[in-house]
Fold:
Amino acid sequence: MGTISLEHIDNLFWLGRYTERVYTTLSLYFDSYDSMIDMAGDYRIFCEKLDIPDIYGGAEEFRRRYPFDAEDPNSILSNMTRAYVNGIIMREILGSEALAYIQMTIYDIQAAKVSEAPLLALQDAIDHIMAFWGIMDDKVDNPQVRNVLKAGKRIERIDLYARLGRDGESVLRELERLAPRVAQSGMRYHREYLDEIREIAETKPVDEYRIVSLIEDLVIMM
Structure:
């Protein structure tokens, strides 16, 4: 259980980030689906918050393309594919069972595209992501692997929570989970940024844009 290479740290970090991005944006897509049927403008708010270019032109096109379009670099499917690309490089460390859950998530999203009940198939995708994280806890013995993965996961979640205007308490909860993970990950990072994010999250109104800026630059990648 020796230390892992810088290249593999990068793969694990982005595997954690992309997997969390899919999980959280899928959950948000579920929450917004009905309102986007009734109010076309809601999808634009969604895109604006997540800094996604509005290439869709309407709510129906957004619902059709955003989860499923492999040609859209911002789609849920594209982000899950990036997770898989990073994961496949780490197959020997993570194990084939863990990679199978990532692959099944991709299949779920593809199946949802042609399903008459796409939200049911997308729920399977959420379940398989959760199973992937369960495997990480249960079967990966190397603590650095888990710490890098979960640091990426928490960084992505804080980033998304700030963009989505979640309350400061939600950010603080994730920050407390992030701090020990990144400290034990072997990655270089700006410790003082954690303190600043904490101060911002405890102040009303919360400066979400500053949190995004700090969390994006927290880890010093080689």
Notes: The beta strands are 188-189, 219-220. The mean pLDDT is 91. Residues 6-38 form the longest helix (33 residues).
